[in-house]
């Protein structure tokens, strides 16, 4: 009998976990815009939040997740995530993955807004790299991975998703059809000028899902991480785990910046980012003082390498930092079965808005989300009947593409200015006017005579920026990662 066909757009952790759990049930094709390591999974430094310690409790992890999310979370989804975490972690360990341990006990890290040490990690700060390697080994020769291939639009027939249209680096077009299509394309922090992400993470999944008619949710909630190191070559993340081990934020005079907050340097990310942003705006430089972290190079080997590459002297112990876009809570709206509002189209990982993160994500909950919900979607898809065989005649999508008539850099800069750490409704309205003034045509890259991969990306970035802007305009109160200026906060309260 012919096996069911599954297309997963993405090769990150959520995609790999799904594929691994469906090896016996589906023929799986996985697509990646770059090589198979492209995406944010490989960059993850902190680890995976999971209740493993004797003094910790599931209720405490649930509480911390809801607090971080300003209680805008979907409580049922949060409970599902956290209660399933220990079992999913056991399965990962049984599949051969090794977390850092000392004398048979897991070494548990601490990150911002967690009441307990509960971050499992591997190779110090190399959890993402090791997870990527582990899953790619498990999947080797068992799934078809197609690299350097960009999904540009979804294919629909009679209202349901039946496949995906792709282009490769030579701009050759290829359509793939399947019983189910899963978007696992990661987040959209790459639409900003300063961010910690893989530069390809510019929200393609949201754009192509939206064009196919899928609803979006919570797009205004973008987490800005307080500590992006300012290197010669690039901005790059310095994990919160570094502050968990004792590093402190200081100004140029060596004064502690977070001294007045009850949680000090481990206050929630939005709080710390806003403090640093305000100081940076006033012209003050901010630093992470790592001199009190014992065995820094051993505990954080990947960050140590990045610091060397960017000529930041570890011995001096002061890393220049600023906040930058890091994780996107919003995405394609999905139900408990991970299905978008388009039948047969599913979304998992950072591209999905499951409601677990609410208005802000608790640190190290996203690798967990990829693992728990990747497995959960596998359980859903395993029981689905195959689609009846037939000829696919894809219909036109409801929405056409608007080209970006400005440089990608200019758009990223505008997003940084208007949609960054602190927002103002007045400025958002100004941005809306500027984007409205861009010319509208209905001829997107796919039909354009001078189509390029950059053109596909820029069109998607424009659409995602417009959607984020709309969501930010609609969210009148200052909450979680959507921070309004103090003046506007007061105006809303009156
Ligand atoms: C620097 C950094 C550190 C982090 N540290 C942690 C941490 O310690 N703990 C934690 O929980 N979270 C962490 N995160 C967040 C976490 O890494 C991500 O949320 C998670 O890995 C996302 O996994 P994913 O499967 O959704 O997508 P990703 O791993 O981002 O993969 C996206 C995939 O989609 C593919 N793709 C995208 N668009 C297209 C397209 N148009 N066509 C074809 N393919 C496409 C890409 O090629 C890629 O394969 C960190 C993030 C960053 C940036």
UniProtKB/TrEMBL annotation:
The keyword Translocase does not apply. Its cofactor is FAD. Gene3D superfamilies: FAD/NAD(P)-binding domain, Fumarate reductase/succinate dehydrogenase flavoprotein-like, C-terminal domain, Succinate dehydrogenase/fumarate reductase flavoprotein, catalytic domain. Residues 410-483 form the Fumarate reductase/succinate dehydrogenase flavoprotein-like C-terminal domain. Pathway: Cofactor biosynthesis; NAD(+) biosynthesis; iminoaspartate from L-aspartate (oxidase route): step 1/1. GO terms for cellular component: cytoplasm. PROSITE patterns: PROKAR_LIPOPROTEIN. Its EC number is 1.4.3.16. It is found in: Cytoplasm. One of its GO terms (biological process) is 'de novo' NAD+ biosynthetic process from L-aspartate. Residues 6-367 form the FAD-dependent oxidoreductase 2 FAD-binding domain. Keywords: FAD, Flavoprotein, Oxidoreductase, Pyridine nucleotide biosynthesis. It holds the Pfam family Succ_DH_flav_C. GO terms for molecular function: L-aspartate oxidase activity; steroid dehydrogenase activity, acting on the CH-CH group of donors. InterPro entries: FAD-dep_OxRdtase_2_FAD-bd, FAD/NAD-bd_sf, Fum_R/Succ_DH_flav-like_C_sf, Fum_Rdtase/Succ_DH_flav-like_C, NadB, Succ_DH/fumarate_Rdtase_cat_sf. Its main location: cytoplasm. It catalyses: L-aspartate + O2 = iminosuccinate + H2O2. The keyword Flavoprotein applies. Catalyzes the oxidation of L-aspartate to iminoaspartate. Belongs to the FAD-dependent oxidoreductase 2 family. NadB subfamily. This is L-aspartate oxidase.
């Amino acid at each position: 009998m012919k096996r069911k066909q599954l297309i997963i757009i993405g090769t990150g952790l959520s995609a790999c976990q799904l594929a691994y759990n469906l090896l016996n049930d589906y023929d799986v094709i996985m697509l990646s815009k770059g090589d198979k390591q492209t995406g944010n999974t490989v960059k993850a430094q902190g680890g995976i939040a999971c209740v493993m310690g004797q003094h910790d409790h599931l209720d405490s992890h649930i509480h911390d997740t809801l607090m971080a999310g300003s209680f805008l979370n979907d409580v049922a989804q949060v409970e599902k995530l956290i209660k399933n975490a220990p079992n999913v972690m056991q399965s990962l360990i049984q599949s051969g993955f090794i977390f850092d341990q000392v004398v048979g006990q897991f070494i548990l890290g601490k990150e911002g807004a967690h009441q307990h040490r509960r971050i499992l990690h591997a190779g110090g700060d190399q959890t993402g790299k090791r997870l990527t390697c582990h899953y790619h080994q498990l999947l080797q020769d068992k799934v078809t991975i197609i690299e350097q291939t960009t999904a540009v639009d979804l294919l629909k027939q009679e209202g349901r998703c039946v496949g995906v249209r792709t282009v490769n680096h030579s701009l050759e077009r290829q359509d793939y059809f399947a019983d189910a299509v899963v978007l696992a394309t990661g987040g959209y922090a790459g639409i900003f000028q300063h961010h910690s992400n893989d530069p390809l993470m510019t929200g393609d999944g949201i754009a192509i899902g939206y064009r196919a008619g899928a609803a979006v949710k919570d797009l205004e909630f973008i987490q800005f991480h307080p500590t992006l190191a300012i290197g010669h070559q690039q901005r790059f993340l310095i994990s919160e785990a570094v502050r968990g081990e004792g590093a402190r934020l200081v100004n140029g005079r060596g004064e502690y910046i977070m001294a007045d907050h009850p949680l000090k340097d481990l206050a929630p990310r939005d709080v710390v980012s806003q403090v640093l942003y305000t100081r940076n705006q006033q012209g003050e430089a901010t630093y992470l003082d790592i001199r009190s972290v014992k065995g820094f190079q051993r505990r954080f080997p990947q960050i140590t390498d990045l610091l060397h590459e960017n000529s930041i002297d570890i011995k001096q112990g002061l890393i220049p930092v600023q906040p930058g876009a890091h994780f996107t809570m919003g995405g394609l709206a999905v139900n408990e079965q991970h299905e978008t509002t388009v039948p047969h189209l599913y979304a998992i990982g950072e591209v999905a808005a499951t409601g677990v993160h609410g208005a802000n994500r608790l640190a190290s909950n996203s690798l967990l989300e990829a693992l728990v919900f990747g497995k959960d979607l596998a359980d859903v898809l395993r029981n689905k009947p195959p689609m009846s065989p037939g000829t696919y005649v894809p219909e036109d999508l409801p929405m056409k593409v608007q080209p970006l008539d400005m440089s990608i850099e200019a758009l990223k800069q505008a997003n940084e200015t208007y949609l960054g750490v602190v927002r103002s409704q007045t400025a958002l309205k100004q941005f809306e006017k500027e984007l409205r003034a861009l010319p509208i045509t209905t001829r997107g890259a796919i039909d354009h005579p001078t189509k390029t991969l950059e053109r596909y990306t820029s069109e998607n970035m424009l659409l995602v920026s417009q959607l984020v802007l709309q969501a930010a305009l609609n969210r009148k109160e200052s909450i979680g990662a959507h921070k309004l200026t103090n003046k506007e906060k007061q105006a809303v309260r009156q």
